[in-house]
Fold:
Amino acid sequence: MAVTAEDIAPTIALDGARKVRGNLTQARIRWMVLALILGFGLVGGRLVQIGMVENDTSIEGQARDVITATRPPILDRNGLEMAVDIRVPSLYAEPRRIIDVEEAVRKLRTVLPNLDENWLRQRLTGDKGFVWVQRELSPAIQEQVMRLGIPGIDFITESKRFYPGLNEASHILGSTNIDNQGIAGIEKHMDSEDVALLQELGLARGNALAPVQLSIDMRIQHAMHEEAVDAMNRYKAIAAGAVMLDIHTGEVLGLVSVPDFNPNDPASALVKDSFNRITAGIYELGSTFKTITIAGAIDSGAVRLSDRFDARFGIRYGRYTIDDFHGEHRILSVPEIYKYSSNIGTIRVMQAMGKENYRAFLTRMGFDTRVPFELPEMRLPNVPKEPADISAATMSFGHGLSVSPLHMAVAMGAIANGGNYIAPTLYKRSLEEAQSEYVRVISPETSADMRYLMRLNAVQGSGSQTEKIAKGYRIGGKTGTAEKVVNGRYSSNKDFNVFASVFPMDDPKYAMVVIVDEPHAENAQTGTTAGWNAGMMSGRIVQRVAPMLGVAPNFTEVLQQLETPNL
Amino acid sequence: MIRNLNIILIFTSALMLAGVYGLKFSIEETASERTALTEHIRQQEGDLSLLQADWAVLNQPGHIDPIVKRHKDALALASVNQKQFGSFADLPMRPAAPDTQGLDELFEALDAGVDPIDAILNLEGIE
Structure:
């Protein structure tokens, strides 16, 4: 039998049961590995995907949180709000989510027609995650925009600073920018202190911060502001201002400078001439400086109130002769020098003291440096370091040196409060705190003499217009009419007028400096010297605010009640 | 034995699965409630800040003063004058002893049916 291949039945190769099972297991393991790889691949891929997503928490370069950062409310000394935060909606867009830019532009412009079409189109086109469209809108507009239902357009609530007093305390409060950072006034000072730090740490987000209480009294601030605006109109002046201090604690009760600005509209602060003339303006304060000169001379012991000085002739320095405005041209006692505002007499008083001593006294009174004060808007005073004879002579009656009205107010306070220099502050300060910072600049006896002189000048001298209006409130003070320098020469028809006063003179509590820049005569019967404008404005302010300050009028002759001067 | 255990385990895991799902959904609901409440609070805080600002504006002396000026004729308002202040020292001292004679006269007059106040009122033309 031939054996052919066909005959050979295919061999049946049977794997052993063990082998079969082994193969099956291997296949299963392979499938399993594949499934696991796929599974883990999926998870890994998702992780990478999530990791790739850029979570944009910034708004045009700023952390989103900063936008909603809050600032502490500012209160006046009686708890009235001077600055508060309000929440306002701001419109933003996410261009990468906007489907139809043209439609969005058209619809948005129906609600916000003041947006420029091209600008808006450019703004909404592209792949950005966030762009501002318009910030700080009203809730009504928010409602209208929401109703348009444009995808990729939404609102974010921002904190916005609001100043309910509008212009009245503008120079004190300053202003904030659109990102809620202080850019002027006490707002800027607060930022430099701690608010900025709090905001940076994230502690000032949406949380109410403890309110900051100022020393300002809004009632007084209002009265002073109104009188300053009134003075500008009444005397057709280019500017007016006033500052009032508590002379025992150094607290500033009111500080006004007009023209001013609306802090709710920070751009208005940039208008020319709206700067703070009380702190950031330096001026020749004219005859008000005679108060300083005489105080220094009496305190040095070189001059006594009863001394008499020859004021018969003008004093010659080379080509110049210094003469008196209201010339008495006779021998004058110190009270007469002050009362008649004699330039010659004041120069003699300064010479009796010695010009070096006089210059040193100015340093002691703080006229060399900026007043230590919270507002950032301060200017360095301009007082010659080593004045020549003629320079010292003019400085004695307030010419040839420029200081801020705040310098004068602080000096008046120190002279009247018994001789203690206390730096002014915008924050509340108790008497004990203030007393620990007192620096003695003149003796209490000199202070008593100066109070006598200031009251005398109000009753008999250049302050009589003030006294007439504020009768009963025992005001005392000194006028200053300084001719302004125009093109390097003293102008005879442009004056800078000052009235530096203290009241009530029998128990002095408040010092005030009022300035009126380039006043005109109110009517034919009045003049342009300081008594007629700055003086009368001071009288009107005192007449209004004294009752608020708890100063009761007293008509008994207070001049006699003052401590007897060492005549 | 093991089969029974497996059945029990399967049932427990199914139950727990259902429980976890329930928990998850309830948490999601709570979370969305919380979000809604937070949003509500935020909105009310915003409204409150506006009301507070309004209140501050209405309280400003600069806002009240023009109102006073506008109504000063109708209400006969004027700023206070120095002369209008008085002090305790200005008050007359109490008389050392009561005016017995005057009081006796008054009581007798009242008994007689004459009220001295009437005479003054008639004089002034007040009913």
About this structure: The mean pLDDT of chain A is 84. The two ends of chain A are 168 Å apart (CA to CA). The first strand of chain A starts at residue 58 and ends at 59. Chain A is about 35% helix and 20% strand.
